[in-house]
Amino acid sequence: MPQPRKSQISLIDTPYYHCASRCVRQSYLCGTDKHSGQSYEHRRGWVEERLLFLATVFAMDICAYAIMNNHTHVVLCVDKALADNWDSDEVLRRYHKLHRGTLLTQKFMNGDTLSQGELITFDETVETYRQRLYDISWFMRDLNEYIAREANKEDGCTGRFWEGRFKSQALLDESAVLACMAYVDLNPIRAKMEKTPETSKHTSIKKRIHAAKNKQPQPSVLTPFVGNPRENIPKGIPYSLKDYCELVDTTGRCIRDDKAGHIDNTQSPILERLGLDSAQWLTLTTEFEKHFCYAAGAEQMMNAFKRHTHHQRLRGMTKAKALLKRA
């Protein structure tokens, strides 16, 4: 039975969440329909462009994403503190990029004076919009509804384009975050759509590698890798981008049906710091969604999440002990 969204999101435990959406119609989100032969490949660009645009509006960072034939993956980091620091002008400037707002918010942005009674309603509205701008459900709604409308218009039909609900997984510690990011980045390779990360179109890993190869700064639309943890560490993922890209590339080469994958820990600083061996890592990055449902992380973190979200039980606890026990 589906769980209410409030039992899947707990910002007390983690700001990191893996979200996935799937199509319900036979026709593809992207790629080529095997039945009709029609190509929908251009829709990948729609999804990627919309996704990266939303990251500039919401108080959320994108850690990883992959646009597949009939589903999308994105790893988000919610920045509630950023949204809390926005003034009314900033909240409305951002919100009005996506929605019309109310007559009062439009009046305010036009520079008109509000009466005392109007200000009370106005302040309540601003706080509602502020909360929406760090709400994962609203982020996914503004992504999926836009794509559904465009696809329905192109297909000349109406009705559902996506499944009723997107899937959400809380990523409770560094091991879960890094493993899920790699799982997302390697989706096209596991699906045999691509052979290497750098050729995996419409993925975050390709965007990161392209920037690095061209000696450009890390893409501003993606959460940056900021190196090893230290005092006054800047906002971002506390690992080296070079180490992460090399690890994803090595992992991608191990995902083959005709060989057992193995990664030498001496060549994988991230694995060493996470306390994971190559077998654990490969299991996590090839079967992440199979083993974890609403949350993923070490056993202690899973138990805390279960208490805070009032779950009686949480699927994946056994795998958390086996795969993330040293994290």
Task: Outline the structure in words.
The structure is a single chain. This protein is of the alpha+beta class and 327 residues long. 46% of the residues lie in helices and 9% in strands. It contains 14 helices and 5 strands. The protein has a 5-stranded mixed beta sheet with strand order 2-3-1-4-5, sandwiched between helices. A hairpin with a 3-residue loop joins strand 2 and strand 3. Helix 3 (88-95) crosses helix 5 (116-132) and helix 7 (174-185) packs across helix 12. The radius of gyration is 21 Å and the shape is globular. The two termini are 31 Å apart.
Explain the layout of strands and helices.
Blueprint: E1 16-22, H1 43-57, E2 60-67, E3 71-78, H2 80-84, H3 88-95, H4 103-109, H5 116-132, H6 136-155, E4 167-171, H7 174-185, H8 187-190, H9 204-213, H10 241-254, H11 269-274, H12 278-291, E5 295-296, H13 299-308, H14 317-323
Parallel strand pairs: 4-5
Antiparallel strand pairs: 1-3, 1-4, 2-3
Q: What's the quick description here?
A:
Helices cover 46% and strands 9% of the residues.
Task: List the defining traits of the structure above.
single chain, globular, 5-stranded mixed beta sheet, alpha+beta, 327 residues
The largest pleated sheet is described as: 5 strands, mixed
Read across the widest sheet, the strand sequence of neighbours is 2-3-1-4-5
Low-confidence stretches: none
Shape: globular
Beginning-to-end CA distance, first to last residue: 31 Å
Rg on CA atoms, Å: 21 Å
Instruction: Quote the beta fraction.
Output: 5-15%
